[in-house]
Amino acid sequence: MSKKPRILILGAGYGGMMTASRLSKQLGYNDAEIVLVNKHDYHYQTTWLHEPAAGTLHHDRTRMRIESVIDTNKIKFLKDVVVEIKTAEKKVILESGEMEYDYLVIGLGSEPETFGIPGVEEHAFAIRSVNSVRHIREHIEYKFASYNGSDVKHDEDLTFIVAGAGFTGIEFVGELTERIPELCKEYDIAREKVRIISIEAATTALPGFDPELVEYAMNILEKRGVEFKINTPIKEVTKDGVLLASGEEIKSKTVVWTTGIRGSSVLEKSGFETMRGRIQVEPELRVPGFEDVFVIGDCAIIIDEATNRPFPPTAQIAIQQSSTLAKNIKALVHGSNNLEAFKADIKGTVASLGGKEAIGVVGSKKLFGTPAAAMKKVIDNRYLFLLGGLPLVVKKGKLNIF
Amino acid sequence: MSKKPRILILGAGYGGMMTASRLSKQLGYNDAEIVLVNKHDYHYQTTWLHEPAAGTLHHDRTRMRIESVIDTNKIKFLKDVVVEIKTAEKKVILESGEMEYDYLVIGLGSEPETFGIPGVEEHAFAIRSVNSVRHIREHIEYKFASYNGSDVKHDEDLTFIVAGAGFTGIEFVGELTERIPELCKEYDIAREKVRIISIEAATTALPGFDPELVEYAMNILEKRGVEFKINTPIKEVTKDGVLLASGEEIKSKTVVWTTGIRGSSVLEKSGFETMRGRIQVEPELRVPGFEDVFVIGDCAIIIDEATNRPFPPTAQIAIQQSSTLAKNIKALVHGSNNLEAFKADIKGTVASLGGKEAIGVVGSKKLFGTPAAAMKKVIDNRYLFLLGGLPLVVKKGKLNIF
């Protein structure tokens, strides 16, 4: 009996988890060995992280132990950190060892894109992991406590800057408008003392969204006290705040950076050809020139023929890719070369604005307010259903739909 | 009809609140005008502050709106900060004005005693107000979040130093041993990573307590992972930790200073003769040489004839003083010079060690463990009863006695 081929999946984000889950259902026990490697022993909902970052949802609601969700009879889980991929030797270097593969799935996710702006890495926070959002949540609360605990009051303690008014930035600002009044109460501080500033270099907030939706969102947030600075590039982040391209300085002890992502630095380090750290893959999600290496999620670039631009790095796309990817690997394992090309089926996009407010597009229909907020929760729950069925929806879902 | 004399009470701590409360009951509406000035519009339980500082009790449980407790028909409350007392002009300078008095009660409380050790004011926290304990609570939690939110781990983030193993220091350490395991869970950190270090310059922890009680307390706390460094003077506090007299450095981002108190700096500023910022008063609680100025609580020094040492600056003493003080002011207002001398009646002392553990002396009886912890709560509730009757006990009391 020949050795079972090993499918090695790097990263337990949306793409990695769903690929592992689908493969475990589609492959027989003797077809292949499936190994899933991840830095933490838990999986988390990246698209929910703006909530625990603001402190409006506990982070444990966004994460789950990987081994409690996957079929551990069919998937071997390994908690380790990926250091480098050695394609020539068909192996992966991990922090505490190395592992060979027959088929490799790279789902290592993304890192914040700093655009080379000085000070971002040193002085700004990024919404990117359970650890980082706990840090942001506590940093915000600590600034309230510091303000009141100091004999000399520093207004910059109560100035919160969100750099980037894209999807994540706006969703985070929305949660902040919910959380700040609670913190004001807890720390005996008047709401008017606190500034929430959304800074965007582009000519509009929420670029890519319908202008009517953008206006709705900005109105809602401005009514809740958010100051927008659109068309306002940031030149530098310092320990005291941000310097704008105009020369103006805004003092703040809290800058959260949400201006977009680049692919995992492991890819560049491993010698792959990348664009902003991401690999442009073939329609079958394979890395050009490598028969046995696939990429999924934020690390992969696929051009949307409809727009001639890459699909956005979203959970929706990663989850859809997992379906194509599982089929293709199954085919290879079974000796077929009849691979399927990825086809996106974008059902819509909804951005929450905190509380019962949201905006979105579903099909060709624009949604505002409560219906949009409800749809957002339905989308969040749908993924849990795909991953772990009804029990996971009950355990971790957002059940207060209305 | 001649003008009513004004009794001006500075500070709404134990002494000021209880004096105001007793006077409002003992004096008729036409006898005098009672004015109570305090920095905040709330009164808080100083002796409970080690709990919200550790995060084991919410600070709102330790405070109450002053106007919800006093008889506002008889006492005028003024939220203002005392800047200086001008005895020659019989007036008090406040941050936003000034006020004359016929009788003055100084109950301005205490400030942390640094003993001139460099860096204490700049780098150490003190358990002294609602604002300061919220700051400590959040600082501790923020260090857990920072540890896990940083790519590079800093052990000093998880090292907590309590300088002073006296009453407050030990009670705070006891609460920390309750809180730290919760924080470890919240931030995915192993308990063994966290150090709690109690440093005391004297030759024993809890100086003044019976050695058997001290040993019991230290055993309990050591079992919960506290490291004691007794007979270990601190030379300097820096932004990186503490330097011991021995030359050893202990790195820590959190130093809480509990080595004792001195009187309010307003007293020195106002030209009173002080010892560590406190005024040695006559047995009637009057300032020598001033017929109309009284001192109560931590600002007052009275020598205990039994020990030939000052009574400790405790809530118990301040509350007992309020009884003498109210009687004496009432006598003066009614034209009598027959004043009463303060007599202490120390009923006992109980130090909590966190959770269901405590030690104490009641009368001549030593108490350990659960009975001591229960007695501590009885003492805490007794004050609430004196101040606001049963309704206040029900609202703010520690009702889970066992």
TrEMBL record, chains A, B:
Coiled coil: none annotated. The keyword Flavoprotein applies. Residues 6-321 form the FAD/NAD(P)-binding domain. It comes from the Bacteria. Keywords: FAD, Flavoprotein, Oxidoreductase. InterPro entries: FAD/NAD-bd_sf, FAD/NAD-binding_dom, NADH-Q_oxidoreductase. It holds the Pfam family Pyr_redox_2. Belongs to the NADH dehydrogenase family. This is FAD-dependent oxidoreductase.
